[in-house]
Amino acid sequence: MASQYEKMIEQQARLKQKTEQEDFKLRQSKYYENRQARKARSRRLIKKGALLEKYFQADNLSVEQTEELLKIFADYVNAHKPSKLKNDRPSS
Questions:
Q1: Residue 56 contacts residue 69 (beta carbons within 8 Å)
Q2: What is the pLDDT along the chain (92 residues), one digit of tens a residue?
Q3: What pTM was computed for the model?
Q4: Separation CA 6–CA 32 (nearest Å)
Q5: CA-to-CA distance for 52 and 57, rounded, in angstroms?
Q6: What distance in Å separates the CA atoms of residue 27 and residue 67, rounded to the nearest whole number?
Q7: Taking the CB of residue 66, how many other CB atoms lie within 10 A of it?
């Protein structure tokens, strides 16, 4: 009876260790996915910022001045944006 109890205790310890390993893998996977999403977002923002500087010649403007410039044109641009460029994605 004692050896059966000991086997069950060992089995429980192995299962607990396996569960912890799987939990670690899951957390690691989520971290990797989040990291990839952050990298993709950063890359997209950098590209858009470069285009803004290129087409509006805004490389000498501060962040606040750039925001002022964009506010001036935002309503017009959004009202006259071609339908192919409008946001088709449902908001999350």
A1: yes
A2: 679 999 999 999 999 999 999 999 999 999 999 999 999 999 999 999 999 999 999 999 999 999 999 999 999 999 999 988 887 655 54
A3: 0.65
A4: 39
A5: 7
A6: 38
A7: 16
